[in-house]
Specification:
Elements: H1 12-22, H2 26-40, H3 43-72, H4 78-109, H5 120-127
Length: 196
């Protein structure tokens, strides 16, 4: 794991930022992003903390709009009461989605990978003036070796659910060409002028 200027492991900053999203602390999340950007000056850590900050900001914005709408309706009318209950449930689901995305981001960042949250990953790359790298499709006939990480099992070389069968070796698509038998050159005479 890489360490930054202050001897702190760089993945700690995004982990703290995503933890701030989980405990609903947008101000602390902004401070962690600022520290990673200006003090550590590490682009990877700054990109990940920016994703956490954008997730926290979007969650707070959506939840505050929903709470404002809930407070707009009077509670003593039964129809408005049910509308406020539905909006409060929707607000809770938004917060739950932010928690799940934060946990997913933490698990990826702990392995020194990109958090790569939907939409926020591209936003973070664009904020730093870069484009998110796209996977290159393999050329026809080219075998793609699976990326092996620590603790990941090696996939079998045959499809799942089908036993491996030892088959006949591959036959060439055309019949082999038969060569004439080897013939030794005629013996040379010692009095031959071409013999050197």
């Amino acid at each position: 794991m890489r360490k930054g200027r202050f001897g702190i492991v760089l993945c700690l900053y995004p982990i703290l930022a995503f933890a701030c999203v989980i405990v609903d602390q947008p101000l602390l999340c902004g401070l962690v992003f600022g520290f990673a950007l200006f003090a550590e000056r590490d682009e990877w850590a700054s990109r990940q903390t920016l994703q956490a900050l954008a997730l926290c900001a979007a969650t707070e914005l959506l939840r505050s709009v929903l709470h404002y709408v809930v407070n707009f309706f009077p509670n003593y009318i039964p129809l408005f009461y049910y509308i406020t209950v539905v909006l409060n449930i929707f607000s809770g689901l938004i917060y739950l989605a932010a928690i799940v995305l934060s946990i997913l981001g933490i698990l990826r960042v702990m392995k020194d990978r990109e958090a790569d949250l939907p939409l926020l990953g591209e936003l973070a790359f664009r904020a730093f003036g870069k484009q998110k790298p796209r996977p290159v499709p393999p050329m026809p006939g080219q075998f793609v070796y699976p990326q092996q990480g620590p603790g990941q099992p090696v996939p079998p070389p045959y499809p799942q659910g089908q036993p491996f069968r030892q088959g006949t070796p591959m036959q060439p698509p055309y019949p082999p060409v038969q060569q004439p038998p080897f013939q030794a050159p005629p013996p040379r005479r010692p009095d031959d002028p071409n013999h050197s």
